[in-house]
């Protein structure tokens, strides 16, 4: 039930969390034409276009099927990038849609959440049963033996869900990083200008914005993850991510730029 709800309602959840608003051609002719032209050039279904009022520069694609596919851009990205750079970023996000990366990542995120919740619930139930006081009657002793068996079952569930959580978490991160490389290449090919995407990534990395969206499962959809842009002011999370790429949802931005400049 959880999987079905999350799978079907993910677009609405993302829109609510980011406060994104849909736009039509009459609302922003420049953005609409850029998206439409790239869709025609790449043979890609025209997605819904959403805009977030945020001075930072970022974008992401979402959706699981043709009716729900969406490209979301911040106002800062639209205002601060020229047409070449904006086309390159849109091409990157359209590649995610063309390759169905958005659907794959939703499935990965949902499974991580399922394992995490099973892990938490089993741990809380074990803790509650262990700390529940019992009398010394014969009936209570029999009940106590049944509780021991139940605790052992919960312990096995906890161990199983912990292994599942770690496995799905690292798998999700690895898939996310790999798909970003593919989307960079696809976006550069679609717009025909790898240097434009490299320039856009360089600008976005200086001000990725969307810091108000305190949800990592959504932040990993961004073209650049705000918490993974490393500088001297980063906290422990950023330091760990910088020390080990396995903890990152995105490849290192300078490496992405270098690859695009050699494209």
Which descriptors apply to this entry?
Zincin-like, 10 helices, alpha+beta, 263 residues, four-stranded mixed β-sheet
Give a written overview of the molecule.
It is a single chain. The chain has 263 residues and is α+β, with helices and mostly antiparallel strands. The protein has one domain: 2-Layer Sandwich (Zincin-like). The protein has ten helices and four strands. The chain has helices at 2-18, 29-42, 75-80, 83-98, 101-130, 138-191, 194-206, 216-219, 236-243, 253-261, and strands at residues 21-23, 48-52, 59-62, 70-74. A four-stranded mixed β-sheet has the order 1-2-4-3, sandwiched between helices. It starts with a helix and ends with a helix.
Topology:
Elements: H1 2-18, E1 21-23, H2 29-42, E2 48-52, E3 59-62, E4 70-74, H3 75-80, H4 83-98, H5 101-130, H6 138-191, H7 194-206, H8 216-219, H9 236-243, H10 253-261
Helix pairs in contact: 1-5, 2-4, 4-6, 4-7, 5-6, 6-7, 7-10
What is the overall number of helices?
10
Mean pLDDT: 85
Estimated radius of gyration = 22 Å
CATH class: Alpha Beta
Percent helix, as a range, is 55-70%
Structural class: alpha+beta
Unreliable runs, pLDDT <50, ≥5 residues?
Answer: 231-238
The strands making up the biggest β-sheet line up spatially as: 1-2-4-3
Question: What's the shape?
Answer: elongated
Q: How does CATH name the architecture?
A: 2-Layer Sandwich
Into which percentage range does the β-strand content fall? Answer: 5-15%
Total beta-strand segments = 4
Number of domains: 1
- Give helix and strand order, one letter per element, not per position: HEHEEEHHHHHHHH
Largest sheet: 4 strands, mixed
CATH topology, what is it called?
A: Zincin-like
CATH homologous superfamily annotation: Metalloproteases ("zincins"), catalytic domain
> End-to-end distance, in Å?
44 Å
């Amino acid at each position: 039930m959880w999987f079905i709800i999350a799978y079907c309602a993910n677009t609405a959840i993302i829109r609510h969390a980011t406060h994104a608003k849909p736009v039509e051609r009459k609302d922003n002719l420049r953005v609409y034409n850029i998206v439409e032209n790239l869709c025609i050039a790449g043979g890609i279904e025209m997605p819904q276009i959403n805009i977030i009022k945020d001075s930072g520069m970022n974008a992401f694609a979402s959706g699981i099927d043709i009716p729900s596919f969406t490209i979301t851009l911040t106002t800062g990205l639209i205002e601060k990038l020229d047409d070449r750079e904006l086309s390159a970023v849109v091409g990157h996000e359209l590649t995610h849609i063309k390759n169905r990366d958005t659907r794959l990542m939703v499935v990965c995120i949902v499974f991580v959440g399922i394992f995490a919740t099973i892990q938490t619930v089993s741990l809380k139930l074990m803790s509650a049963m262990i700390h529940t006081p019992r009398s010394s009657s014969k009936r209570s002793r029999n009940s106590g033996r049944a509780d021991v068996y139940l605790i052992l079952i919960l312990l096995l569930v906890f161990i199983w869900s912990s292994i599942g959580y770690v496995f799905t978490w690292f798998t999700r991160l690895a898939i996310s990083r790999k798909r970003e490389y593919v989307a960079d290449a696809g976006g550069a090919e679609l717009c025909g200008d790898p240097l434009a995407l490299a320039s856009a990534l360089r600008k976005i990395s200086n001000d990725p914005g969307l810091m108000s969206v305190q949800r990592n499962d959504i932040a990993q959809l961004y073209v650049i993850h705000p918490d993974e842009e490393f500088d001297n002011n980063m906290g422990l999370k950023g330091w760990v991510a910088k020390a080990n790429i396995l903890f990152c949802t995105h490849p290192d931005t300078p490496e992405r730029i270098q690859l695009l400049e050699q494209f």
